[in-house]
Amino acid sequence: MDYYDAIKRDRRNFCVIFCDNLKSNQLFINTFFMNEPFKPRPIKIILFVIQIDLYLLINGLFFNEEYVSNIFHIKKESFFTILERFFENLIYATLVGVIISYIIALFFIEEQEIKKILKREKEDSLVLKFQMVEKLKSMKKRYVLFLLISYLITLFSLVHISTFNIVYNHTMYEWLIFSFIIIILIQLFSLFICLLQSTLRIISFKFKSEKYIN
Question: What domain count does the chain have?
Fold first, then answer.
């Protein structure tokens, strides 16, 4: 629905809108609690594992010789020196993670694309059938390519993480802690974004102003 149709027909309260946003945009909830016809759950679970794996890998890439050397030469370790290292890793891991997530999303056909085809070609069944068959072929190719790339990423990640833990075994604890805190913070941030989107939607309906959800 466009905005003005939504004002007239969308009768959801804030909690329902928030829950819908969570199911659509929050990684963990979307993977295990949201059914999507064009993104089967096994594919979503693979996607979930790949994204977690990438955050572990990206964070591990910062632990090079220079990074470990700087830690070694710190005369007195404090909470603030640890916090400084953590925030630097968080910023770069988040930026790289967002870019990778966007690239991964290109492998999946949006439901909106299917709806546009149905709406545009509903009067011509032959053209509709042809375009739907072509779209399904494209979807199959994307899934195969996605599975291949997922396999290569997982293989590379396992090799890198294994060698990393052998070479830098004294920093393994810090790497694990930093990685899991980053993963948790990113999930919490997605909760905040869903909350913000839901709040702005309710405000836009209340004041009948489209600018709050643009």
Answer: 1
